[in-house]
Specification:
Blueprint (H helix, E strand, L loop, with lengths): L1 E4 L2 E4 L2 H9 L12 E5 L2 E4 H9 L8 H10 L4 E3 L23 E4 L5 E4 L7 E4 L2 H21 L17
Antiparallel strand pairs: 1-2, 3-4, 3-5, 6-7, 7-8
Helix pairs in contact: 1-2, 2-3
């Protein structure tokens, strides 16, 4: 079946994905993956399967792209079990300044892609690097506003900024 991802067509089949998955171990859940597909006794993150099927880096498409494709191929999408976050995690205040690390890279089409690893699925892009940074800042604000409105706690920060002198 043909699927378009970022303007490029890919011929992806359920059999092809199942075949590719047989030779690869599923990624270990790291908090960045929300959805998976159970294949051959393993639970594969949905973006891992589409990356394997297309050769695209995972930043080259969204989880929504992966979800759409796998659903149309009749895979059962499952949510990773989410453990309850300890109530000792801080809640959002009305006026807080929070810092989140981002990754930013230029893709093969010269589009700048920005992601916030601490916030699962929080990605944006821009034609210029400053535009991508401004867009990811807005995406983070929206992500946190949604979490706040649902009474969710702050995510654990698993990243650190390290300064090195040369």
């Amino acid at each position: 079946m043909l699927f378009r991802i970022r303007g490029i067509s890919y011929d992806i089949t359920a059999e092809g994905i199942a075949s590719i998955a047989k030779g690869v171990s599923p990624d270990v859940p790291n908090g960045m993956n929300k959805y998976c597909v159970a294949l051959e006794g393993g639970r594969y993150p949905i973006k891992q399967l589409i990356s394997l099927a297309t050769g695209l880096p995972r930043v080259g498409f969204t989880a929504q792209d992966a979800h759409r494709i796998l659903t149309k191929l009749d895979f059962e999408i499952q949510e990773y079990s989410v453990s309850k976050v300890s109530e000792s995690r801080p809640k959002y205040g009305d006026e807080e300044s929070l810092s989140f690390p981002i990754t930013i890279e230029q893709d093969e089409d010269d589009v700048w892609v920005a992601s916030c690893p601490s916030l699962q699925g929080c990605h944006s892009q821009g034609v210029t690097r400053p535009e991508a940074v401004a867009n990811i800042r807005e995406a983070i604000r929206g992500y946190l506003a949604s979490m706040k409105s649902h009474g969710e706690t702050l995510p654990d920060q698993k990243w650190a900024l390290v300064e090195v002198s040369l």
